[in-house]
Amino acid sequence: MKLYKFLTGPDDVTFCMRVTEALNNGWQLHGGPTLTFNGVCVIAGQAVVKEVEGEEFSPDLNLKAY
Questions:
Q1: What does the pLDDT look like over 28-40, one tens digit per residue?
Q2: Burial class of residue 6, CB neighbours in 10 A (0-12, 13-18, 19+)
């Protein structure tokens, strides 16, 4: 099964560390990053995907466990 999640947050070192952590946990970048301005700060977003074996989709799936 392929998992997908979209990471967002202020464009700072904390956001970069979250993306780095995902990459080091087997997630792969899916497309390029996005940036927007909310009137106060720049917000970054990055989609990541991960292939897992032996899992079936369920609406109760906890993506944080991966």
A1: 999 999 999 999 9
A2: exposed
State both tokens at 53: 């074996």
Query: Is this model's pTM higher than 0.85 or not?
Result: yes
Q: Which long-range contacts (CB under 8 A, 24 or more apart) does 60-63 make?
A: 61/3, 63/3, 63/5
Domain ranges for the chain: 2-51
Burial of 28-66, coded b for 16+ CB within 10 Å and e otherwise, reads eeeeeeeeeeeeeeeebbbbbebeeeeeeeeeeeeeeee
Q: Are 61 and 7 in contact (CB under 8 A)?
A: no
